[in-house]
Amino acid sequence: MSTDTSIAAQVVAYIHAQGLAPGSHLPAQAMADHLKVSRSPVNDALALLHSQGVLRREKNRGYFLAKAVDVNNRKLAKALGLHAPDAVSAAYFRVAEDLLQGNLPNACSEALLKTRYDLTTAQLQAVLSRIAQEGWAHKKPGYGWEFSTMLTTPDSLLQSYRLRIALEPAALLEPDFYLDPQVLQSCRAAELHLLAGGIETDTPDQLHNRGVRFHESLVEASGNPFFIDTIKRLNRVRRLLSYRSMQDRQRYPEHCQQHLRILDLLEKGRNAEASEALRKHLTSTLKNLQKIRGTVFDLLGSLPADFMADGRQDTPPQEREGL
User: Fold this and answer.
1) Which terminus of the chain is less hemmed in, N or C, by CB atoms within 10 Å?
2) Reported pTM
3) What is the per-residue DSSP string for 280-319?
4) Torsion angle in degrees (nearest 10) through CA of 11, 253, 156, 280
């Protein structure tokens, strides 16, 4: 039986995005849950990575990271197809781009999508399954698919960022906030990896996952289940916009430095300062999105000037009520 190398490649991407250190445990069930696949292909993928020397296996304990992952290692890249974009991922990003550019109708038949993106039936189902899991499309009763307009209108886009600016800094001030030192170090390693060259070499998926993991780690540390549920729901659909923004990576070094500054403050127990730094970071991100030319991000030009100037949310009362 042949091993699906795309699963192994996704495991490597996960290791890479999380900045996992040698010795880190990779439970098969946890990986299956993360990748939303059954246990069997994950077991095959872990065995393949073991054969490549990426993982080591311990009897009755499972697989552990044997060494730091180098995605530019030619032998590993060839074995896993890391630098050969698969048809499913390529089609996924083409659908996202077409939708954001207004080149794809909100309601489509599977036949139209299959022909437009030159996919097999299995590939099409994989693309649609991924999109549905992320929450920006659903199968219509009886026939076809419908894409959500969430995060593709001026109001919803602004509201999503206002929500993050309101929620994430507040999470750092929760009375039960505790960021596990191992999680903090993992987040720090991911930022240092990007500054060491990952900004240029990582895929859009890897960049997105690293950003999601950083922000979700901080919110999860709040211990507030309402905060945690809200940010996870938002991040499931934020990928659509994150991909669009990743076409300009010049802002990433600054963002990495901002992330590292926040982590340093949290490590020292200076949560109030970290909360303020996070608020400024999110507002800076929103400001940078204005520079991206495209159907969705051009809409950011309607932001109030004082909102973009220094991060203060000096918006009219009727707008603040929508937060």
Assistant:
1) N
2) 0.58
3) HHHHHHHHHHTTS-STTGGGGGGS-HHHHHHS-----HHH
4) 130
